[in-house]
């Protein structure tokens, strides 16, 4: 009896994992909506003053820096299965607004500014197990294009103390193409609905350029900011 009972439990477990759902098979199209958590592992090179009143300076200010803080946003993904195991995915999120805080000697100022990050991506994924299996882990690789808007220095106390009373600073950040490395898993609830969780890593950096106006004098400066975010995506998908 005990042996029979154990066999029944094992069979039940197999049925639970490999039910009749075909939501992840060749030809399937899935739209997913969910929550992105963007967690930069960021740091910045010391600020370099490039020019002062049009004259080259190239002066590095040691022990200065900044980092990009984490942010949350809504994400949307479209997935197409070419085979039972291979799919492509286009994923985009509402651009998150990141706070930028000082490090080193700039840490005393706290938040220096903010920036909005746009990072749509295209991925190719390999899904493990049979198409009928409800729980399917996967690995993926792809590419994204990142650009920035709304680069704003909001801390006037920082600008006044570092560049002079009444100074005004504007900022811009360079766009870039970047690889995306992805792992995750989906669970098919039935033939149409599934839930998923993925983790992505994007080796990303940008050159931030600053123009500071102090009276009639223009100061140009820059820094390289490493962002390297880890991005989680918890989502609900619908197959059609």
Automatic annotation (TrEMBL):
Keywords: Signal. It is found in: Cell outer membrane. The keyword Transmembrane does not apply. It comes from the Bacteria. The keyword DNA damage does not apply. It holds the Pfam family OmpW. Gene3D superfamilies: 2.40.160.20. One of its GO terms (cellular component) is cell outer membrane. One of its GO terms (biological process) is transmembrane transport. Residues 1-23 form the signal peptide. This is OmpW family protein. It comes from Cupriavidus necator (Alcaligenes eutrophus).
